[in-house]
Request: fold
Amino acid sequence: MRTPYVLAAALCCGLAAANMVRLAVLPAVLLLALALLVRAPLVAVACLLAVVGWWWGGERLRTLDRSVLLPRIGTAARAVVELQEPPRVGRFETRVRALLVRWGPERLHEPVLLELPVGRPPPQGARLSVLGVLRAPRGPSNGFDERAWLRRHGVHVVLRVDAWRRIGRRGGLGGVADRLHAWLARDGAPGLGGERRAVIDGVVLGEDQGLSDTLKRRFRASGLYHLLAVSGSNVVLVASGVVGLAWLLGVSRLTAEIAALVAIGAYVLAVGPQPSVIRAGIAGALASLAWLSGRQRDRWYALLVAAAALLAWNPYSARDPGFQLSFAAVLSIFVLAPRFQRTLEGYPLPSVLRAPVSISAACGLGTAPICWFQFHAIPLLTVPANAAAAPVVAPLLGLALVTAIVAPVAHLPAVVLAGLNGWCAAYLAACARLFGGLPGAQIRSPVAVAVLAALVLLAAAYAWRHGDRAEARLSPHRQRPAQDRARAAPPA
Reply:
C-alpha cells in the first residue's frame, strides 16, 4: 500500500469522525503524544494526521454551528444581503441562500435563507436592501428536515422579506463567479426557450428551475437526474477541450496545461461549489500540475485529496447526498467498471456500448444503497437509460460551451449552434420521459429492494468470478512474449 494513500485516507477519516464526536484540545494533545510514541513511522504519521483532522473538523463544525442571528428570531429590521446562488422560484415564494452583511446598524457576516415575495427574482450576486423578519427554518416534514439540512451548510435562520430593492452587486471573487455564471446562462443557448433551454441549463450549470415537476420526476425515475447536476465529466470535457484547441492552434503543451487550469477554475466558479464539481476540479488541476511538474498522474490520490479538501472546508459534507453519490460513483468507476467491461467482452455487444453500459452499471450499483437510504427510491432502468442518453451528453455540453464563446462576437452562428443543441436537449428529455415513465422504473418497496439486492449480489459474484477467469485466460498470452525472449537470450 502506497504511503500517500494511507496518509490522505487517515486525514479524511479524522475529518469525517468529527461528525460523530467533537475532539477537545486536551484529548487531542494526549492522542498526539500517543501517536508520536508509535515506533512505526508510517503508522505514527497516519495517526498524527487523523488526530489533526479530527481536531480541525471539530473546530470547523463549531464555526459552522455558531450563529449571531439565532437568538434574534422573531425580530424585524432593515438588512443588506448578497445573493450567493441563482434564486429558486416556487409557487408561493422565491428562496435563495444569501450572505447577510448588515442587520439594522450592525455589520455581520452570516449566511441566511432568503424568502422573497413572488415576482421577478433578482440575479445571482445582487446586493439587496431588504425589510424582513427572522424566523426559524422548518422542521422535519415528509421525510425532509430543512432545519438540519440548512445547519449543515452553516445556515440557521430564514429571513422572510416583505420589500426589497437592489442597491448593487457583490465584488471580489464572488463577483467574478457571478459574471461567469451570467455569461454561460445568457450565451449558452441564445434563441432557445422553454424545456430545451432548461435542459441545457441543467447539464451546463446544474440548474433545474426551468423544468416542470413532471419532467424532474421522470429524470429521477430513469436514473438520468445526475446529468442535471454538474458532474466530473463536465470538468473533463472543459479541460480536454481547451487542450485540444491549443493543439489545433499549435500552442505549446505548457501553455495548454496552464490554459486548462484557468478554464477549470473558471468553470468551477461559474457553476458554484457543488461537491462533484469541486472533486473533479481538484482532480483535473492535479492532473495538469502533474504534467507540469513531470510526475505521473494518480487518480486515486487525486480522489483522496479532493475528499480531504471538501471535508476540511465543511466536515458536514460527509452527510450530504451529493458528496456521497459523487464519490460512490467515482469509486464504482475505478473498481467495478473495468471488471464489468471485461465480462461484457464475451457477449455480442457493440464495442461502442461496452464502456457506457459498464460505467452505468457500476455507478448504478455503487449508488443504489445511498439512493435508498437518502431518498427511499432506486431507479431500475439506469443502465439502458444512460446508454441511450450517452451519445448526446458530451455534444450537448460541448455545443453549449462553444455557443457561449461564439455568441459575444457572432450572434447568428451562435443561434444556429444553439438550435442544433436544442435537438440534443429534446432527445435527452425524451429519454427521461420514455424510461422514467415505464412501469416499475423506480422501486420504493423494502421487499422489492431486498429481492433486488439478493439478485445483484448473485450477479456480482458471477461477474467477479467470470472476470477472474477471463483475466487468467489472458495472462498466459501476456506472459508468452517475455518467456520467448527469455528462451532466446544467450546463456550466462
In short: The beta strands are 76-83, 88-89, 94-103, 106-116, 126-135, 140-141, 144-145, 158-169, 378-379, 442-443.
